[in-house]
Amino acid sequence: MSLTKLATSTLAILAASTIAASARDQVQITGSSTVLPYATIVAEAFGENFDFATPVVEGGGSGAGRKKLCEGVGENTVDIANSSSRISQGDLDLCATNGVGEVMEVRIGYDGIVFASDIAGPAFALTPADVYGALAGKVAKDGALVDNAAAQWSEVNAALPAQNIMVFIPGTKHGTREVFDTKVIVEGCKATGAYDLFLATAEGADDKEKKTAAEKACNELRTDGKSIDVDGDYTETLARIDADKNGVGVFGLSFYQNNTDKLQVATMNGIVPTVETIAAGDYPVSRPLYFYVKKAHIGVIPGLKEYIEFFVSDEMAGPDGPLAEYGLVSDPELAATQAAVAAETPMGPLE
Amino acid sequence: MTDTPKSGSIFTQTGLMAKRNASEKRFRFYGLVAVVASLMMLAFILFTIFSAGLSSFRQTTVTFSLELTEAKLDPKGGRDPAKLAKVTTVGYNKLIGTGFAAAIKEHGIEIEGLTDKDAAGFLSDEAAANLRDRVLADPTLIGQTVEINALVMGRIDGFMKGRVTAESAANDSNISAEQLALAKALDDKGLLHLSFNPAFITGTDASDTRPEAAGLGVAILGSAYMMLLVIVLALPVGVAASIYLEEFAPKNKLTDLIEVNISNLAAVPSIVFGILGLAIFINFAGLPQSSSLVGALVLSLMTLPTIIIATRASLKAVPPSIRDAALGVGASKMQTTFHHVLPLAIPGILTGAIIGLARALGETAPLLLIGMVAFVREYPGAPPAGFSDPASALPVQIYQWTQRSDPAFVERASGAIIVLLVFLLVMNTTAILLRRRFERRW
Predict the structure, then answer these.
(1) pLDDT reported for residue B5
(2) Which of A299, B163, B175, B365 would give a disulfide with B271, using CB separation of 3.0 to 4.6 Å?
(3) In terms of domains, do B188 and B269 share one?
(4) Which residues of chain B lie closer than 8 angstroms to A44, CB-CB?
(5) Number of folded domains that form chain B
(6) If you average pLDDT over residues B280-295, what whole number do you get?
(7) Residue B204 lies in a domain
(8) What is the distance in angstroms between the Cα of A214 and the nearest Cα belonging to chain B?
């Protein structure tokens, strides 16, 4: 039968061709969806200006990306993992057991996390204490912890608009949530005095364990539907605010900058989030962005070294480069990073 | 229930008959409502997709003449290709920016407060990349004045299409009032053209900063490669398995077990096949990541049960008299199957293949784990070697575009859905035409 002949011959050709074409000639990148747009901007410019193929960039999350990086060495493993949080000891251990060897850590800049609401609504001037008061499960009232009963922002702080509380926060699988928890909620918890109350009743063998327990208690958010976890990306948060104009959402700075016609940003401690205020350290809610490079692949995968050098060059990651224009807060210590990349310095142990 | 019916004419309506007729009428009405409701939903979906997406097939460009100054592009002279390549797109961007600002003045357009940065930002970054490619391909252009047809930035394109208005632009930090005024002035002079954009279908994906340049070429190729491989891999295997199970295999506990398992496999969530593909094809067999080959293997596994179930059903539907007649005139079992039963079952098999392929074409979840949900900007090579090159797929491209922060990608995602629908339509039409040819009545 011709069908069988066709099938077998195709299979044979396929098998032969995959063996022949197994040498990979493009860089493979995976990891954080926050870093993804920056990585695609660099990859695009890299493909245009160098004689190497454009790198293939995947999203999928920081944690998943680092696990993929640590799967092993070889052409069918990735070269770079983008990450919106620092690599963990667990990942490094995994790398070690899989024989990945040295990993380079490259910090590309900072990402601001902003609160924004519908453009037609009232403006918000928030502090971490306000956000904590609006979202926490238990708040301090007259020296005791009580269930949070605030229904409107004005009940939390008389200076805020009388608008129903509804906040779309990143779900727990997002790297952004960690920053939100530590830089906003825990800070607000401390400012309102709830932290001390939690600490007083916290259980633990020593002070350190008690502090961890108190911070954990701070991060218990209210479950009555006023704080809403969004597991999708920022486009989903934007759609939710579009549907319910009372909503306040948590976004990345670059996302907000691309949608200033629909969103207005809230100040934090009186500071408007911009690339400049974050770079200066005035705006409190920001985090560093990284990528991790498998050192064993440098020199094996064509273009890998050139790509990372191009990424951290002033032309790309500098304060006037396209990444800053898109919303990346340029790293003031970029020169040190460039030197480390040029020297291929592997990262030391986590402190 | 043994009551004998009351005697009487069947033409006189009794209470029971009236009830029965009424219930039939009601049922017909429900059916009609169901059909109308689903048609309305379909119409609504198509309307939203087409109204949002049709504009992505057209794109705004601006035409102006530009002097390719030698001092900028080849400062040393000599036209050495290696030295020419040293001038990056950043350099070309500056050249185009100043050239465009000069061209605006030449056309007598004066906009108060328009800075050179605004003028440069009016154009897409893609223009610089295109110009660089053009100059590197033909270095004799350097020093000449050429006519260039450059893409404008996404927001201006949105203004031309009515997506961006003066009100929305006032709050938008990515576009200035001066740039809008410039767009109006250029449009009045007839220099802005909103025309059909073949690059949307043939071009590659672009980064978040240039939605105006993003195209579907890699995704269409990737989807086409995968569908081709799925047909080649899943159809023969599926048909052979069902012929064996239906015509030759003994009926015992083992074949029963296989049968139950195949039915269960058809209901397994598609992401599971992705996990399987990652473990077997990439980690164990060492096939290249993000390639259409691995994608096709995963989708084949997913499509197999559908094809097997449909094929077995259509083999069963061939009347036993045909088999008996063939066996009766002395044909062997194999001859009976391949000369008589299989040809009659082909229309049913093709229907199963259509259903399976349509599902495979629209899947993103299994591709997520094998690295195909990625930013791919290089076209995969020609088959068969190209099967192992990284590629994207149409549903993947749609998924990625909906996640981008620039609102211009919403339009492009809807446009990509239209392309996906057309792709599906072409595939199904081919299958239906084939089925017509094989269809036989008895």
Answers:
(1) 56
(2) B365
(3) no
(4) 206-207, 210, 377
(5) 2
(6) 88
(7) no
(8) 36
Are B340 and B368 within one domain? Answer: yes
Q: Specify if B18 maps to a domain.
A: no
Domains of chain A in sequence order: 22-110+288-342 (3.40.190.10), 122-244 (no CATH)
Residue A258 with chain B: CB contacts under 8 Å: 174, 208, 405-407
Q: Give which of A26, A33, A49, A314 to mutate to test B binding, by max B Cβ within 10 Å.
A: A49
A9 contact B CB<8A: no
Distance from CA of A328 to the nearest CA of B (A): 13
Residues 6+ apart with CB under 8 A from B420: B361, B362, B394, B395, B398
Using only C-alpha atoms, chain A has a radius of gyration, in whole angstroms, of 24
What is the reported pTM?
A: 0.86
Q: What is the DSSP string of B217-285?
A: HHHHHHHHHHHHHHHHHHHHHHHHHHHIIIIIS--SHHHHHHHHHHHHHTTS-HHHHHHHHIIIIIIIT
> Model confidence at B164, in pLDDT bands (50, 70, 90)?
confident
Tell me whether residue B414 is exposed, middle or buried, using C-beta atoms within 10 angstroms of its C-beta: 0 to 12, 13 to 18, 19 or more.
Answer: buried
* CATH code of the domain containing B245: 1.10.3720.10
Q: Which residues of B touch A28 (CB under 8 A)?
A: 289-290, 371, 390
Nearest-neighbour CA in chain B from A287: distance (Å):
19
Tell me, yes or no, whether B193 lies in a domain. yes
Cα B345 from chain centroid?
A: 30
In A94-153, the residues whose Cβ lies within 8 Å of chain B are 119
- Contact check, Cβ <8 Å, B208/A51: no
Q: Do A18 and B209 touch (CB under 8 A)?
A: no
- Chain A CB contacts of B403 below 8 Å: 33, 59, 233, 235
Last residue of a domain, one of B197, B225, B249: B197
For residue B209, being part of any structural domain is answered with no
Both tokens assigned to B244: 């064996």
For residue B115, give Cα distances in angstroms to A67, A209, B60, B112: 47, 58, 22, 9
- B99: helix, strand or coil: helix
Residues of chain B with Cβ-Cβ distance to A17 below 8 Å are 384-385, 387-388
Domain that holds residue B360: 217-438
Residues of A in contact with B287 (CB under 8 A): 18, 76
What is the rounded CA–CA span in Å between residue B20 and residue B18?
5
pLDDT tens series, chain A, 351 aa = 455 566 566 665 555 555 444 568 889 999 888 899 999 999 999 998 888 999 999 888 888 889 889 988 888 889 999 998 888 888 899 999 998 888 999 999 998 899 999 988 898 999 999 999 898 888 888 778 888 888 889 988 888 888 899 999 988 777 788 888 888 999 888 888 888 888 888 777 788 888 888 888 888 888 888 888 888 788 889 999 989 888 999 998 888 988 888 899 999 998 999 888 888 888 988 888 999 999 999 988 899 999 999 999 988 888 888 898 888 888 888 899 999 988 888 887 876
Specify whether B185 is located in the same domain as B228: no
Tokens 């912890």 belong to A145
Question: How many residues are given for chain B?
Answer: 442
Q: Do residue B65 and residue B161 come from a single domain?
A: yes
pLDDT digits (tens, 9 = 90+) for B77-111: 777 888 888 888 888 888 888 888 888 888 888 88
